[in-house]
Specification:
This protein is of the alpha/beta class. It is built from ten helices and 24 strands. The protein has helices at 11-20, 61-74, 93-103, 210-219, 249-260, 338-355, 361-370, 388-391, 398-401, 412-417; strands at 25-29, 32-37, 78-81, 107-111, 130-135, 139-148, 154-160, 165-172, 199-204, 224-228, 244-247, 266-276, 302-305, 309-312, 332-335, 406-407, 430-435, 438-447, 453-460, 466-468, 472-475, 480-488, 497-506, 509-519. Strands 7-6-12-8-9-10-11 form a seven-stranded mixed beta sheet, sandwiched between helices. Helix 1 packs parallel to helix 6 (338-355) and helix 2 (61-74) runs parallel beside helix 3 (93-103). The chain is globular, with a radius of gyration of 25 Å.
Length: 534
Amino acid sequence: EFDSARDSDGHGSHTSSTAAGNAGVEAGILGTSFGMVSGIAPRAHIVMYRACGGPTGSCFQSDSAAAVEQAILDGVDVLNFSIGGGASPYSDIVSLAFLSAYENGVFVACSAGNSGPGANTVGHREPWTTTVAATTQSRSFEGQIELTADNGDTLSLAGVSIGGSVTGDFVLGADYGDPLCGSIDGVNPFAPGTFTGDQIVVCQRGIVARVEKSANIMAAGGGGLVLYNPTVNSLNADNHFIPTVHIDDAAGTTLLDFLATHTGVVGSLEGGIKVYGQGDVMAAFSSRGGSEQELGISKPDIAAPGVNVMAGQTPMPAFPFLSGAGAPGQYFQALGGTSMSSPHIAGSAALLTAMHPDWTPGQIKSALMTNAWAGGIIKEDSVTPADPFDYGSGRVDLNEAGTPGATFSATAADFIAHQHDLWNTNYPSLYLPVMPGMMTVQRTLHSELAKNAVWKTSVDAPVDVTIDVPTTIMVKAGQDETFDITIDARHVPLGETRHATLLLTHKSMSLRFPITIVREQPVVVLEKICTPAT
């Protein structure tokens, strides 16, 4: 470990360079060039705080809270926190530190968590932070697998890989005692010399770090690794120690079947092929919201790219095998996780801060959320349309966020006063966790324009939900205008969830405002007094 804020496992280098790395920097990994890269807010000033300096990088809450306090004192504008937590924000000391940051004008981006795709797995439920889910992007790093059996049958498979090539015999890690090819209490399950340099070992994902598996195979003499997902999950182009291709569960099943029904299988791996892939697919690992978010706001707030993101790496990882940092000596890496999506939003907030130095964190959050894109985001199966429990307001889109025309913003005091009914704060979305049938809430639109504006409204809602709002909302220049949102969901069956969208437009500007309700019967408390004499 470095006795400073210098990064020792690559995670901090990656997130900070994603948020604010310089533009026009040529990125290469393991001898393969991937062209020019840039941070979201290039040439922004970066300050690092060593908050995770415990044993093997553990993050004590007291250290994280102290780092947030120091950041406030140092006058930072934006914080990125690609660390878990925040499930109970009103009792979590780090969450309350973020509340102090919000109150002092500091925007905070946090990762949603990597426990998806199940419902109600999202972390960082603080209303004062911006919680970020992860999607794919349209650029990927492909790896090709070619196999030939001794009877002449062939098989071609595609996965992801950051680089490297190898040719040899295909063998199963399971045939050598461990299908996971993973360590047992840190001990390599394979003795030195188990494999030869012309053997490519097939291993199942799970239990231990992906990169550690390739380190184990290399230490045991192997020349390559095929890593397959046993279930639906992301594909990761890690900095492996030997040529590695990571394939999905369907390709894994095909590969295992081929190896089980053929003998003398030989072939090759070829990685580091830069290709265009399918963007705006929810990452399978990305944590989700759901109907059990009782505080009265729905998380995540927004989504950003978080799969195979190319950014910085420390060339001197302290624990290259255990941390997943990969081979030493590399200055770049491609990582996946909501840790990678969160700094996209932190960098976006830095750009908006530069454009609007007088904006509060709430105004920045509103501009990002109400101008996010949600026109075609799909779930991890690459078919089913995603919903706000997956992506919040949508995938970040900076084309319009700098000139939103109007914002919704709440104060720290509002979040404290309404901690049990956050739907009554001026949040840039609406979530009603217990919808009795009909409810009316209010929102206040703040003008960001130099002239008076008339905003037209329209609603896209399911057939069993009616949402009434004013047809137009007149907002004077630089002023506020409060309006009612009345929701009638009496025809929605108990226990079911509905998503709707309120759209506000003025000239070429448009604001998307997500509305989600969970139809439930609220607890009704009755009091009675019996006086026998009357």
